[in-house]
């Protein structure tokens, strides 16, 4: 679990990132979750945008993605979800304690 301080640190790091996934009409599927897990292994911190035609609520999408990819949900802001997962082999972000 992330502390408030760690979440603030990750939010500031994520600020300049662009969303690299979009969740649309089809909602969340296994293939998307797998791809997000792979990208998190490489990048550790990503943004996902929820399109307006998405059938699911953005909080539901955020919960499904973070559970499925075994990642931490940093924040949901507007239609953007920020996810973090510490990389096993490619660690780049050192979290404050």
TrEMBL record:
One of its GO terms (molecular function) is RNA binding. The keyword Endoplasmic reticulum does not apply. It comes from Perspicuibacillus lycopersici. Coiled coil: none annotated. The gene is yhbY. It comes from the Bacteria. Keywords: RNA-binding. This is Ribosome assembly RNA-binding protein YhbY. The keyword Metal-binding does not apply. SUPFAM superfamilies: YhbY-like. Signal peptide: none annotated. Residues 1-96 form the CRM domain.
